[in-house]
């Protein structure tokens, strides 16, 4: 009888034990933080501060397709959690962005300095 292996995904004989080592995906400290009540509250507070609008779109930054984007908003840590975990709930380190601008900020196309300037305008 054959079965699908839960370790490698191949089809083996029912009695065969797969020799491939199982890789556990480690949860990082930042992944655990994002599921906490404190983060969910802070995320809503930042979105409310930014009036539930993408701040990069409002400022006409880098090929913004919309003037006012309010769909699928995400809160971005300007200084990433991996660099400075102590700023995880600091309002001056958080900004509301649409998925397109969030991706550009993660890639470094939108610099940290530019994001800090946007926050200081408010």
Keywords:
single chain; 122 residues; alpha+beta; two-stranded antiparallel sheet; 5 helices; 11% strand
Fraction of residues in helices?
A: 25-40%
Structural class: alpha+beta
Please list the strands of the largest sheet in the order they lie side by side.
Answer: 1-2
Largest sheet: 2 strands, antiparallel
Find the count of extended strands (DSSP E, 2+ residues).
Answer: 4
Which shape, going by the Cα principal axes?
Answer: elongated
Structure description:
The chain is α+β, with helices and mostly antiparallel strands. Strands 1-2 form a two-stranded antiparallel ribbon. It has a two-stranded antiparallel ribbon with strand order 3-4. The protein is built from 5 helices and 4 strands.
State the gist of this model:
It is built from five helices and four strands; from the N terminus they run E-E-H-H-H-E-E-H-H.
Blueprint of the fold:
Blueprint: E1 2-4, E2 11-13, H1 29-33, H2 37-49, H3 55-58, E3 74-77, E4 94-97, H4 99-107, H5 112-121
Antiparallel strand pairs: 1-2, 3-4
């Amino acid at each position: 009888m054959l079965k699908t292996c839960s370790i490698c995904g191949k089809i083996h004989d029912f009695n065969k034990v797969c020799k491939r080592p199982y890789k556990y995906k480690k949860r990082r400290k930042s992944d655990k933080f994002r599921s906490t009540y404190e983060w969910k509250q802070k995320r809503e507070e930042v979105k409310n501060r930014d009036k539930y609008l993408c701040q990069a779109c409002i400022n006409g930054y880098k090929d913004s397709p919309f003037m006012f984007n309010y769909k699928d908003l995400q809160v971005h840590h300007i200084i990433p959690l991996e660099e400075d975990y102590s700023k995880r709930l600091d309002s001056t380190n958080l900004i509301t962005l649409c998925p397109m601008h969030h991706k550009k900020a993660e890639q470094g196309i939108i610099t940290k300095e530019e994001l800090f300037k946007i926050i200081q305008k408010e």
